[in-house]
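MOLECULE: protein
FOLLOWS: sequence and fold
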Amino acid sequence: MTKRSPFRYFRTSPEIIRLAVMMYVRFPLSLRNVEDLLHERGIEVSHETVRHWWNRFGPMFAAEIRRKRVDGLRASRWRWHLDEVFVRINGVQHYLWRAVDHEGEVLDAFVSNRRDKKAALKFLRKLMKRHGRAEELVTDGLRSYGAALKEVGAEDKQVTGRWENNRVENSHQPFRRRERAMLRFRRMHTLQKFAAVHSSVCNHFSSDRSLSKRSVYKQARTAALAEWRQLCAD
């Protein structure tokens, strides 16, 4: 049975849709910024069209990226860094739990309205179900982590200490820049959806430019862009 193209009902070419979604998710741009940049390239679409494309295809692209990465190389289980970000939704404080590996690749993101043992436990179980168990789990001094790790029998793997969690602290910066460009979030569902898509896109285009030769960096960037242009093409 032939698989139907997800672009079959759209008059716009898939290349333009992929470009618009990549610009909006990857860079700290507003919907109107993306509209203006597309206009400079002779592409006339409204910012509401970009919003529709991102909502429709963003999760689809992210799911395919995750699937290809899992089929290829699994995430490292040596050391994971866990931390939570304070996010306000309609004036109410929520928490975005994030986990990255020792290279800074985002493993998972989870939104909750509390920062207690129950929320930490739910996040850990979700993380371990997808990636297995790590040899070390680096956290801050939040007691919820210790209680949750004890519940899953991994309390001996917890590592805390000053500057130990800088890897995940630096990983928060792209999300924070993106949050400011979007003028914050209005629903938990929207935050969870965007965090999942944003982390997958960041992983896809991430490369340690400062640790690579210029030629190696250019090859990795070209390969990532070529793979992006083929998403959902089958």
